[in-house]
Amino acid sequence: MPFAKANGIEIAYDEFGGRDAPAILLIMGLGMQLTGWREPFCERLANAGFRVLRYDNRDTGLSTKFPEGGEPNMAELFQRAMRGEPVEAPYTLADMGNDGVGLLDAVGIARAHIVGVSMGGMIAQIIAADHPDRTLSVVSIMSTSGRPSLPPGKPEAFMALMTAPANSTRQTVIEQIMHSRRVIGSPGFPEEEAILRQQVEASYDRCYYPQGIARQTAAILNSGSRVERLERIRVPSLVIHGLDDPLIPVEAGKDTAATIPGAELQLVPGMGHGLESGLETRIADAIIAFCSRVTG
Prior knowledge:
The protein has an 8-stranded mixed sheet, sandwiched between helices. It is of the alpha/beta class and 296 residues long. The protein contains 11 helices and 8 strands. Helix 5 (155-162) packs antiparallel against helix 6 (170-184) and helix 6 (170-184) crosses helix 7 (193-206). The mean pLDDT is 95. The chain starts with a strand and ends with a helix.
């Protein structure tokens, strides 16, 4: 696993495809490691003629951790956000966007297609707005503009994601993560039990780090609305959202696409808040078709 020194930290990453091909930078969501972009997905993009980079966000996986930032209390974070009070965070989503740009610098890529899912979609939006000279296009998947008036996700989805395991044993943690993945996942593309368990176990064994999830959550809540940023994006943009997303409702995807000038919107029936193996080909092919048009 290579590491890059970027934006003052070390970022774990790997890549697929030819080094001279147009680049796609993949940014994963809250607490998810680079392995959340499964190898078959990355290989499909690479086989279509792209250089594909996936990486661990800060405070996730094998990239630099920020224990000096403490472990925020999740309940307090959301209570402050719901009251409209400022949420302090040890770093921001803009900092995380600068990590991605720093990785491009480290590997010698001038411009890339920026693709992000959930929190990664928020980071991708920020890169497209703040670093248009580094962005060929942006693809925001199952994400949101952060507009305060948007409807919230379903309470059961929120609780499944935020409920801590009953204890810290490996088996208990794995079962809790599998449960949350099922609750927020795609009803039209349910993951096979064996595949889901293998994914969760491999992720746990690579790096289980819940403190980072709390700090990333603080960064999300700290960032607030990105509407003003989205309104000044001028690169080609694609928004993909599931019609059955229980965590970030489809209205958020529609709003994101409506706010970015000229953005395309693709709504996927049966897709929830997950990139299950049954969805990978469809999502990868949408990205390939869009980025190929942009690249020319």
